[in-house]
Amino acid sequence: MRGTFYKGGQVSEALVSDRQQSEIPLLGGTANRGKVVRAGNTVRRPLRRTSPATHALLCHLTDIGFDGAPRFIGIDSQQREVLSYIPGTAVTPPYPDWALTDEALVSVAELLRAYHQAARTFDPTPYAWPSSPPEVYKGDLISHNDPNLDNVVFRAGKAVALIDFDLASPGCRLWDIACAARLWAPLRPACYISDVRCGRVLDRFRLFVDSYGLGNADRLRVVDAVAQNHDWCYDNVRNNAAHGHLAFSEYWNAAATERADRICQWYVENGPALQAALV
Length: 279
Ligand SMILES: Nc1ncnc2c1ncn2[C@@H]1O[C@H](COP(=O)(O)OP(=O)(O)O)[C@@H](O)[C@H]1O
Ligand SMILES: [Mg+2]
Fold this sequence. Notes:
Number of strands: 12
Number of domains: 2
Radius of gyration: 19 Å
Structural class: alpha+beta
CATH class of the largest domain: Alpha Beta
Distance between the termini: 57 Å
Mean pLDDT: 93
Bound molecules: adenosine-5'-diphosphate, magnesium ion
């Protein structure tokens, strides 16, 4: 197949033989629902306008030896990005018990910290990125911006890789921490938690922040970041739905809207308790 392939620090055109491989659909995501497949040891995904930026980031991670992200391999003859398949399991509903343990939560915090450490030395300036977090959260690195459960691959109960860097853009550690804590603790009213995490969200929030090693100054900002991250993520969903994206349109119904509003209100009412949990 003729495609663009990445090897040893640079991307180049190459003619590479490719045996006909069967493609297995990979489920779990929303943005590219039905369009992500596994072919052998690779994953094929649609390209985006900002793919060159994402690919440069992934190449940087590979070059410095960070193995907690897919490798960018190239672009195939169907104009899809080719990434390395990461053996393991991403966390998709119904959530398995092993994904809801405190050990799993700690491992996500450690993976996120390792990613931030690796991303710190990447220069994002030459590239066009997806829209960034609010200005105040634009810091000194490319944040992942979508550390949802289905974007983390686990092996033996431990988070080993982040996948789906489509939303990665100039941001900061705090933004990713807020997003991950929001989704993994999770930070929402008890009526929206139907598993063993119910009743433990404040403890888990603290555990996540401690496991990441968040400093004192940022501890005072993280609760606000959680609420803003909630709004930012739902704006993204709403925008996609408004532009006719099928999977987001199906998701963004009256119940989802009410849920988003109630969670937002919960942040207002529980701000002091959330802050107190981190002291
Ligand atoms: N590089 C990868 N290695 C292993 N599994 C992957 C990889 N990329 C995607 N997957 C699997 O495919 C699912 C959907 O992929 P993803 O790229 O996150 O789609 P979306 O963009 O729709 O969120 C993931 O939840 C995961 O199960
Ligand atoms: Mg995804």
